[in-house]
Amino acid sequence: MTTASEDAPAAKLSAPDHEVTVIGAGPGGIAAGVKLKRAGVTDFVILERADEVGGSWHENHYPGLEVDIPSLAYQYSFARNPHWSRLFAAGAEVKRYHIEVARRFGLYPHIRFGTTVVSEEWDEDRHCWRLHLADGGVTTARFVISAVGAFISPKQDPGIAGLAEYTGKIQRPSDWDDGYDLTGKRVAVIGTGASSVQITPSIAGAVGSLAVYQRTPVWCVPKPNPRIPRAVQLAFQVPGVQASLHGAALVVADAALRTMSNAPMAVVRPTMRAVDAAAIRGYRGLLRLMVRDPGIRAGLTPNYGPIAKRPTANTGYLLAFNRPNVDLVTTPIERFTAHGIRTTDGVEREFDMVVLATGYHVFSDPETYTPGMVVGRDGLDLGKYYTEQGLQAYESVSLPGLPNRWTLVGPYSWSGSGWHAFVEMTADHAVRAISEARRRGATFVAIRQQVHDAYHARIYRHGEAMRYYLAELNAHVPTYYRNSQGDSTYIRPTGFFSARRAHHRFPFSDYEFDRLTA
């Protein structure tokens, strides 16, 4: 490989199957597809393991599913929807939105459904990626955009012994059997995360009995969800109205992150301790208002700060524990039995149905990246690299050893916005780099090692306050905001607007552009 001038004619290459391959047709994949089309890139394919677009919003359709931030903040800037029916849209409505966007922008002809990528392998001789598929096939691409999202795959094994012995109905939020009639059934929900908080109040009135098995109490505040009046929907159609409202919310989130990341630790430590203590006292007051039984109130009270785990919002969750058929179980589970669940105190309860609301493999965990999944230049194995070196990537999207490849949800990527806002800007980064490569006739694009290292050092330094909060002040609580290496690689500590500027304006000199020569 040699560096070629911008004006030299490109060598005749054995062309890959596609110029660009996008992995995943969820919110990130849709954003990438739209950005590629707008940039004039037509030779691209989107590989999607499911049979429809939408990612988690297609896979998940459990009772009570809805967004946990206002709908107007949960949409693309290039496809704002003035017709949301409620302040917090239901899952089916969000799924329809993604389908409509994909149709409007002509993405369906580019999508191959039922196609699972099991590994990615860099071909140095051809400057392309070989993507190995679950059906044994192989497809090649000059450039790859990984848009698999934040929640890569649901945890099939909850880590509880005896699951295979249980003979009742198993339900998972990501694979809910809508045909199962749970009326009058004895039901257990294991877990108290975002899906459990929505499922629990949605089924409590229909089932005969409901036991919620809790390892860690969750922060859950009331969430009024009114219908959006027609007059407001009409106002949302006025250009700039939705953008202004969304922008105001982003300013608040951005200011909070920047203040935390820039404040001296001598101020951060006592402030965080005081804020957490005050928040816990306030939450105890909320529980006194909403939950009658003092024993259940005590069990529902967190002993950690409000953002150490993903906070939730649902008016019905806490109120559900006032129902006579709903019980909170805080004794640890020992194992499944043939007919139910036994806890460590020896008590066995029988259940007709168990809901495993036990979470996902998340992008910020090194264990998510198994050896051999992504192998780049000079044999760089992403799974081994992240295990040995920790999660890192230039602007959260690219690594020097993975040329021609960008990840839309990578280390230190979430910047306090809705998912759509930040996958849009990471997609902009990838498409901007690809467009410049096309302009130069380059077949090879990689972030320079020294640029990557400088960026990672800076972002790691800014993350000191978040690491203190998650790995010291709240080290006792399990959370996917802190990974197994004790790092807070989920969150970009420098804020939304800084991230957006960087993705839109990064110097092309940060990258190395080369091409194959005859």
TrEMBL record:
SUPFAM superfamilies: FAD/NAD(P)-binding domain (SSF51905). Gene3D superfamilies: FAD/NAD(P)-binding domain. Pfam families: Pyr_redox_3. Coiled coil: none annotated. This is NAD(P)-binding protein. It comes from Nocardia terrae.
